[in-house]
Design a protein that fits this description.
With 204 residues, the chain is an alpha+beta fold. It contains four helices and eight strands, in the order H-E-E-E-E-H-H-E-E-E-E-H. Strands 1, 2, 3, 4, 5, 6, 7 and 8 form an eight-stranded antiparallel sheet that branches.
Length: 204
């Protein structure tokens, strides 16, 4: 998705009180190795440009755009890695280490719900944008993953597509986003599913 869409002032609804996402008591989370990230070669191949991987960085990436946010979610261990080509194609992977597997399961569902409803929220917030979401199904990797697509078109003719996925391994959740200009007919869905499976398998 382009920066025109990415800068939309959208936020996710806060989670209801008492959810299993409630942060654990201090020191309750077990110590594990930091999750691993995708490499540039594991992104969907670009037909004319190679991928470049940025450094692994602490925090939450704005590159996830209007679909995913931290609002209403307790503080967790957020890290991300950005990727880009020489053209208008980019990607980002987020990893979130929670306190328990139950928290991770709830967080993965929350993120998938945000992605599932993203098109409607974009249209409600930005009357000059038409948005369409698609469900590309689940993947049988670790504790599971789901892939979705998003297409946006502005009133002045700019079109952008994104593929987004959420997967989980134990108490760790990963979100992957790929985006470029175009429509969903140009989206490398099969390759992105492979990237998602690799991302989840590679965490630990």
């Amino acid at each position: 998705m382009s920066r025109r869409i990415r800068t939309s002032a959208l936020t996710a609804a806060a989670l209801t009180a008492g959810t299993v996402l409630t942060a654990p008591a201090a020191g309750a989370a077990p110590k594990t190795a930091a999750p691993k990230f995708l490499s540039a070669s594991q992104l969907p191949p670009h037909p004319t440009s190679s991928w470049t991987a940025g450094p692994v960085t602490d925090g939450f990436p704005e590159e996830l755009g209007p679909c995913v946010s931290t609002e209403g979610v307790p503080a967790h261990d957020y890290r991300y890695r950005g990727f880009w080509t020489d053209l208008d194609t980019s990607a980002v992977q987020l990893t979130v280490v929670t306190g328990t597997a139950a928290q991770a399961k709830a967080l993965a569902k929350h993120y998938d719900d945000l992605i599932r409803t993203c098109a409607d929220r974009i249209e409600d917030s930005s009357p000059d944008i038409e948005a369409e979401g698609r469900d590309y199904g689940t993947l049988p990797v670790e504790e599971g993953a789901r892939v979705r697509g998003l297409h946006t078109e502005t009133s002045w003719g700019a079109t952008d597509i994104a593929l987004l996925s959420v997967g989980r391994d134990g108490r760790t959740v990963t979100v992957v986003r790929w985006g470029q200009m175009g429509d969903l007919g140009n989206a490398p869905v099969a390759a992105f599913k492979k990237t998602t499976s690799t991302a989840v398998e590679k965490l630990y």
